[in-house]
Amino acid sequence: MNVQDYMVQLGQQARASAKVMATATTETKNNALLAIASALDSQREAIIKANQQDMAAGRDNGLDAALLDRLELNSNRIDGMIEGLQQVAALPDPCGEISDMCYRPSGIQVGKMRVPLGVIGIIYESRPNVTIDAASLCLKSGNATVLRGGKEALHSNQAIAECIAHGLQAVGLPATAVQVINTTDRAAVGHLITMAEYIDVIVPRGGKGLIERIANDARVPVIKHLDGICHVYIDDRADPEKAFNIAFNAKTHRYGVCNAMETLLVHAAVAEQTLPRLARAYTETGVELRGCDRTQAVIECQAASEEDWSTEYLAPVLSIKVVDDMQAAMDHIDRYSSGHTEAIVTEDYTRARQFLAAVDSSSVIINASTRFADGFEYGLGAEIGISTDKIHARGPVGLAGLTSQKWIVFGDGHVRK
Amino acid sequence: MNVQDYMVQLGQQARASAKVMATATTETKNNALLAIASALDSQREAIIKANQQDMAAGRDNGLDAALLDRLELNSNRIDGMIEGLQQVAALPDPCGEISDMCYRPSGIQVGKMRVPLGVIGIIYESRPNVTIDAASLCLKSGNATVLRGGKEALHSNQAIAECIAHGLQAVGLPATAVQVINTTDRAAVGHLITMAEYIDVIVPRGGKGLIERIANDARVPVIKHLDGICHVYIDDRADPEKAFNIAFNAKTHRYGVCNAMETLLVHAAVAEQTLPRLARAYTETGVELRGCDRTQAVIECQAASEEDWSTEYLAPVLSIKVVDDMQAAMDHIDRYSSGHTEAIVTEDYTRARQFLAAVDSSSVIINASTRFADGFEYGLGAEIGISTDKIHARGPVGLAGLTSQKWIVFGDGHVRK
In what residue span(s) does the Aldehyde dehydrogenase domain sit (chains A, B) (predicted)? Predict the structure, then answer.
C-alpha cells in the first residue's frame, strides 16, 4: 500500500473509532487506561528489547548523548508510563460536563455540554513515552488519536502501540482508537496535517522548527507551542526578598524548560540594590550573565547583544536589562516576548493591575516564579503541551483543551414566535 | 501603492491599534459605539447618497432583486444600524472577566482572565450593514478589525467607514482600530487571509462557496460558518402535539435561515399518525415535500433523491424520511448533517439523554424548534455568526467568541520547590 492510501485508511479508521469513543463511558475509558498499564507491565521485556534496537540504530547513526537519553526506555521509565496512565484514569472525565444552564425568556433552557474534538493527530520527536502520554490524554477526553513519533523511536513506539491496542480491545473499545503510524516516510506527516476530513486538530510536540514547519503546511487546525522567552520584571516597589527569590528560582530551578526566565528586567531605581546580590547567586550556581550597558555599570558581566533579547537559551544563561519604569519593561516584553509567560514583582496595587491587564502572554504572574506556568501546577492534572496560540487553547492544555462544547437546549414543545 | 504594500500597512496599523484597544476602558469603548451611532445619524444623507451610487452600479451590472434589496440602505436601515450600536454598547464588556480563581497546594492563586484575540479580519458579501455589525462586536470585545465587504457595496462601506473613524477619534481611540479595505482588488483578500503576523483570526460571513475558498487558502485561523442542514427527529414516544408544533415551526418560521429544518425524520411507528396532519399544514403554507418510499406510502409527495438529503434548501422545500428507530435517525444525521443543529421530539428520558450525548452538532435540542439555535435566543446579546467548527468557537458566536483567556497567577513571593 502506498503511503497516501495507508494514511487515508488510518484516517477513516480513526474517524469511525472517534464515534465510538465519543460515547464510551467513563468507566470503560478508565478501564482501558488501566488495561494498557497492565499490558505495558507484562510486556516490559518486549518493549525494552524493541527500544534496544532503536538505541543501537541511534548509536550507529551518531545520535548525541542527550538524544539517546531521551530515546532510552528502561524499567523505571516504563514504571513512569504506568503511573501516568493511572493518574489520567484518576482524573475527572471532561466529557459530558454540562455548564451554564439557564432559562431564557422564551422558556427554553440552554447551556453547554463538553464533548470530544474527534480525531487528534500528535506529531512528536524522539521520546517514546510521549506515545503513552498523548494517547492517554486523548483517550480520556474521548478522542481518537493518530500518533506520529520520531523515526529514531519506531520500534519502541510499535511495541508500545501493541500494548495500547491490547488494552483497548480488552475493554471492548476499537483498537484503532489509538493508531501509531508505522512508517518513517515523511510524506505520512504531509498527509496527516492536510486530511481535514479525518483529522480535527494537530498537536505537535517538539522544537520550534518542527512546529513552524507543521503550522505552515497544515490544512488542519494546529495547537502550537512555540518558544518560551519568559521575562521577570522587578519593579522599584518590589519587596527585595521576594524579588530575589523569584528571579533566582525562575532562572535556576530548571534550565531546559519553556517556563524558565530568559530575560530579567530591573527598574533603574533598584538596580544597584538588586543586581549585585542576584549576580553573586547566579554566578555561584554557574549561570552566565549578559547585560545591557546599564547592567554592566552595576555588575560585571558579558554585554548582551540585540540577539540575546530574542533568544530562548534553555540553558544557564540569562540576559539582564535595566529599564526606566514599568512601561519600558512592558514595551520590551511586547517586542521580544514569545507570549508564553511573564511575571512582575511589585507591592504596588495599581501597577500590578496594569501589568496583569496589559501584558499579552498566555500566563501573567504577579509575585511568583514563571516556573508555575504548568498544567500540573495550575491543577489541570495533566498537560499535553503549552499553547502559545490564542485560538481555542491558550497556555497549559489539559483534558479540557482536547474537547469542545456544544450547545444544548431543553424545551417542552417550545417554538419560535 | 500596490495592493500588497497597502495590505501590509493596514495590517501594521491594525496590530498597533489592537494594543490600544486591548486596554481601552469599557466606558471608552461604549462611548465610541455611541459616537459612531451619532455620526451615522448626522451623515444619513451622505451614506444614502453613496449607497445610491452602489445601487445604480448594481442595476447596471444586472444584480438581481434579492441582491439589490440586501445592498440597499435607507433611513430605516440606518436606524437599525444605530439601534444595533446602542445594543452592543449596553452589553457587558467581556474583557477582563476573571474566572475560576482558586488556590493551589503550592500557595499560588490561579485563574483565567478574558482578553481580546487581537486583530480580526471579517470578509463578507453585499450587505453594508454588516460593516457596522461586525465592527461594533469587534470593538466592544477589544479587538482591532480589518473589514472587507462586497465590491457592490464599496461606496456605502466607505461612507460607513468614515462614520466609524469619526466615532473612534471622537473618544480618543485610533481611527485605524477599524479599517475598511478600500480596494475591490481580489488580491487584497489573499493577503488578508495569509498575513498571520498581523491578523489573528478570520471570520467570513457569506455563502458556503466563499467560506470554503477562504478556509482553503487561509494561513490564519478561520471561524467557519458552513451550511445548516438541520434535522428534526420525531420519536415514537413523542407527544404528538409538540411534534406537530416543532416540526411545523422549524420549517416554516423562516425559510432562508441556517437553523431552519431541511429534513424531517419520523419513527415508522408514528408515521401514519404524524405525517398526514403535518403534510396538510405544510402544503397549505406552500412547502414542497419530498419523501422517501415509506413517506410516499403515507402521504402524497415528490420522491426525495439522494441529493435531497444533503441539500440546504433555504426555501419552502422539505425532505422527509421514515426511519425504523432513533438509531437509524442518528445514523442518517451522522451521515448527512452539516453539524449545525438537530432536534429530537420525545418524552422518553433515556432516548433524550442518548440523543443529547451522541449527536455531534453545534446545537442539540430536545423538544424545541431548531429555530432557537441563535445568539440572541441563547442570550449572547449579539452574534457575529454561527460556527460549524469545533475548534475555539462552536455554534452561535457572540462577544466571548471574539476573545481568548489568559492564565493569571497571584503569589506572595512564591517559588517552585
Answer: 12-285, 309-373
CATH assignment at residue B132: 3.40.605.10
Domain count, chain A: 2
B12-48 burial by CB neighbour count: b if 16+ within 10 A, else e? Answer: ebbbebbebbbbbeeebbbbbbbbbbebbeebbeebb
- The answer to whether A237 contacts chain B (CB < 8 Å) is no
Cβ contact, residue pair A391, B221, below 8 Å: yes
State ipTM: 0.94
Q: Which of residues 79-98 of A touch B (CB under 8 A)?
A: 96
**B28-72 pLDDT per residue, tens:** 999 999 999 999 999 999 999 999 999 999 999 999 998 999 999
Q: What are phi and psi of A228, to 5 degrees?
A: -120, 90
Question: Do A191 and A236 fall within a single domain?
Answer: no
Q: Which of B326, B383, B414 to mutate to test the interface with A (most CBs of A within 10 A)?
A: B414
What band does B119 get if pLDDT is binned at 50, 70 and 90? Answer: very high
Q: What's the gap in Å between the CA of B217 and the closest CA on chain A?
A: 9
**Which cell numbers in the block locate residue A273?**
540594590
Report the residue of B409, B412, B414, B417 to disrupt the A interface, i.e. the one with the largest count of A CBs within 10 Å: B409
For residue B390, is it within any domain? no
Any domain includes A384: no
